[in-house]
Structures are given as C-alpha cells and as structure tokens.
Design a protein that fits this description.
By secondary structure, the chain is mainly alpha-helical. It has 14 helices and five strands. The longest helix has 29 residues. It binds tryptophan.
C-alpha cells in the first residue's frame, strides 16, 4: 500500500509564493510516490467568513486553478472539496470529546490568528475549534504525511494527540500523521513581515501578471540600515535575498549579488531587477497553465467532482470503521 498524503488550503484567496514553497512544491514532488489528497477547506474558511459565504465559491475555483497551474496532476492527486464530504463534520463532533478547552487555548497558531482577526463580537466557537475539524480532515483520509508550512505544526501536533487518544480509548484504527515542511518553511512577506498573508497585503500571487510582480518586487523591503548603494549591506534576513535564494536558479549570480551587496558595490535596484527576472521566469509557465485551465471551467469542475467522489468514498470507509470502533454502529432495520 502506498503511503498517503493529505493537505489543504482555505479558499479565501488565490494562492501565493508562500503556499508554493511551504507546501505546493512538496505535493507536486511527492504525488507519484504518495496517494495524494488535497482538501479545499471551505468549511474551515467559513469559520471566519460565515458572514460572506459567497466569497468562497469563486475561490474554490481559483485555488483549484493554482493547484493545476503548479503541476498537481489530477490523474494522480485527488482534489476534494471539504463541504462535499459531510462525514468530516461527523468525525469532528466525535473528536470534540477528546480535546479539552485548555488544549485549544494553548494552540499558538490559533492564538495568533484570533489576535489578528480582532473578533469584535467574541470568538466564534466554530473558529476556535477548527483545529479539531482539521484533525478530522487529516485522519479521515488516514494520511501518513501532511505537507504544510511551519504555522501549521500545532495543528498536526493536535491531530497526533487526538489519534493517540482515540486509538487508546476505542481501537487502533487511526494513523498518527507526520508533518512535512517545505524546503523553506516560511517565506517572508514583501514587507519583510514574518510571512505572506492576504490580510497584510504583502503577497506575490501565483497568478500575478508580470507588471504586478515587478511592482511588488520594486517596492520590497530590503536592508533598513542601508541608506546609499555604496553602504555595506546585510544579506541575512533581507527578504530580497531570501527570495533570490529560493527562486533564482542562477546560484553564481546570487553569490555575486550578495558579495557586492555586502561590499556596497551594488544598488537595491539592480538586485531587484534580477529578482524580477527570476520570478518572471518562474511564474510565466505557471501563469500559462493557469490560463489554459481557466479557459476550460467544465474540465476543472469535473476534476473537482471526481476527486471529491474518491475522497468521499474513502471518508465513508473510515467512518464505518470509526463507528464500529466506538460501538455506535446500530442496525436500524
Ligand atoms: N489550516 C490550513 C491553512 O490555513 C488549511 C487546512 C485545512 C489544512 N485542513 C487541512 C492543512 C488539513 C493541512 C491538512 O492553510
């Protein structure tokens, strides 16, 4: 039996370079080796967007286009829409018994997200408990491996705890998953902030036009201590160089730019021009594939439907085992 991957994204916006290095790249790299399921987590997205559910529909489509554009192969990887697998909500409810309020309150990613969102009417229970629903996402597919960005590690840890409790209490049927981080666990935002985030507006999207990429790069944050191009500059912690390290395949050029930057013999503009070129070369084929699929919406819908059908079949099988293990499988006829 090949090992299985499950990972996913909230369809709140198209995906950006942070998603690519954190997780998408690993999904594409491993889709031949692993039985791969990719979840479009619209129910999770709803937990802080329930007042504007209509924004999700368009983004389910956009996120699918991003997957296909970066090379997710629908013949190998199954793209599943979360809300079309109702078994997930059932498992979430069962898992709620296995998690304490205190554990949720300690989850650092959740704490951070709650702070960012500034919920004025109080924290919705749905949002606050989404780590439990995410544990259901991962376990219902019996995933071994979860390719994610660094911010998701507390969710995987929470999942592992639930699985251990479930298996001990009822029957050893669930799999304790491992996280797989990208080769860069966290890509900084164009503003130098800790990560790319839609709400901050510091992202370069996979579908951005060359003009948008140029504009984003040219206004990027660099070394705040460097006033003149002749000042010696810092390369470490400078997001422009972080991006060069990740996206510029010409390593000799990157080393030369770093060297001259440290000596104060290259200006920010040249370093950024080279980054624009590297990113454009990287994004051009992605944008082209995105456009090809965008022109065939019916095909995209079929891909989602077929992936979801296969995902749901697997989820139903797991729930059958879960109900047996919990001894709540009654014969009603
Ligand atoms: N919480 C993830 C994010 O914000 C999305 C997600 C939902 C997910 N379900 C998942 C990721 C299951 C990995 C596995 O990006």
């Amino acid at each position: 039996m090949p090992k299985r991957i499950l990972t996913g994204d909230r369809p709140t916006s198209p995906l950006h370079l942070g998603h690519y290095v954190g997780s998408l790249q690993n999904r594409v790299r491993l889709q031949d080796e692993y039985d791969t399921f990719i979840l479009i987590a619209d129910i999770q997205a709803l937990t802080d967007n329930f007042e504007r559910p209509e924004m999700l529909e368009a983004n389910v489509f956009e996120v699918t286009l991003d997957y296909l554009a970066v090379g997710v192969d629908p013949h190998k990887a199954k793209i599943v829409v979360q809300s079309m697998v109702p078994e997930l909500t059932e498992l979430t409810i069962y898992f709620m018994n296995l998690v304490t309020v205190a554990t949720l309150e300690r989850n650092p990613t959740l704490k951070e997200e709650i702070k960012q969102r500034n919920f004025t009417k109080g924290i919705p229970v749905g949002f606050w408990s989404y780590p439990i629903s995410q544990a259901a996402d991962i376990t219902i597919f019996k995933a071994d491996l979860v390719p994610v960005g660094e911010d998701q590690l507390p969710m995987i840890e929470q999942t592992r705890e639930i699985v251990r409790r479930f298996n001990r209490l009822y029957k050893k049927i669930l799999i304790e998953p491992r996280a797989l981080l990208g080769k860069v666990a966290r890509l900084p935002g164009t503003d130098g902030g800790a990560k790319m985030s839609k709400s901050v507006g510091n992202c370069i999207y996979l579908g951005d036009s060359p003009e948008q990429v140029r504009q984003r790069v040219m206004s990027m944050f660099t070394d705040p201590t460097r006033i003149h191009p002749t000042d010696p500059g810092h390369v470490e912690g400078n997001p422009v160089f972080t991006y060069h390290d990740v996206f510029n395949p010409d390593k000799a050029e990157v080393e030369d730019l770093k060297d001259r930057y440290r000596k104060g013999t290259v200006g920010d503009v040249e370093v950024k021009e080279r980054l624009v070129k590297a990113l454009t070369d990287f994004l051009d084929p992605i944008r082209a594939r995105r456009a090809e699929f965008a022109a065939k919406p019916q095909l995209v819908r079929e891909i989602i439907n077929e992936g979801t059908r296969q995902g749901r079949a697997l989820a139903q099988q797991t729930m059958d085992e879960v109900r047996s293990a919990m001894k709540i499988k009654y014969a009603l006829d």
